[in-house]
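Hello forum,

I keep getting stuck at the same step: I have a sequence, I want structure tokens, and every attempt I make locally crashes halfway through. Rather than fight my setup again tonight, could one of you with a working pipeline run this one for me? It's a single chain of 275 residues.
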Amino acid sequence: IWGMESSFGQFMGEQSVIRSLATLAYEGRRPQWAEEQLLAALQILHNGDIQPGSMRGSWAGAMGQTQFIPTTYLTHAVDFDGDGRRDIWNSSTDALASAAHYLQASGWQQGRAWGMEVALPSGFDYALADSAIRKTYAEWYSLGVKGTPTNVDPSDTGYLLLPAGHRGPAFLVFRNFNAILKYNNSSSYALAVGLLGQRFSGGGQILADWPRSDRPLSRSERIELQENLATKGYNPGPADGIIGANTRKAIRAYQQSLGLPADGYPTPELLQRLR
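Reply #2:
Ran it on my machine without issues. Output:
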């Protein structure tokens, strides 16, 4: 998380957190959220943990080496170096301990795996690769899903993740993966954090080929995809350009109607078929 959020404390943002949040509270997509964050940021200043001129962060108000938003700071930041201040800007000790506290509160199980890369059997039903479909490792194993488990119990429950569709690698992810998602609700982010964490001990290499030639859909194309799915009666939810659970479910249903692997993965080819 430290590496992903700030390149190990090198890039924390140069914007005034107060100014950014005041601007977003006045004129932004989520003014109520920004106002809540602004009041929390003012509370941090009132507590004396940081001086106003040093409270720098991103344009959206994320702060410090681990890019906490102000409300998260108030609930989970800790003074781990014992100097009397919760300083996630200048103290790596405080920043890392605060991130650890947040993960702990999010359900992280110490000594357990976040997930692992797996191989899927020939003829596998890709519609099972859905975050809503959760099985124990023993149950997945009985379906031919094979990996090299480390710190995984047969009773551990997880779901299959296909970050690049059926032509890319497959991962079986568990409760600790969901704890990372609480930090940033993006499967790509959580996967990157999990793999980078393993790299420090010599692991984290992806074994399967990744289809690097795939072009990701633009936001306008994702919206068009959702609109076309809705026109055909597949109910992807709002046409907002976000490929969430409802859109993936709609894509799977459309893929099944065509006899394609139902991996729920949006591609330019799929959009062209819808057109």
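The two ends are 40 Å apart (CA to CA). If your local run keeps crashing, start a new thread with the error log.
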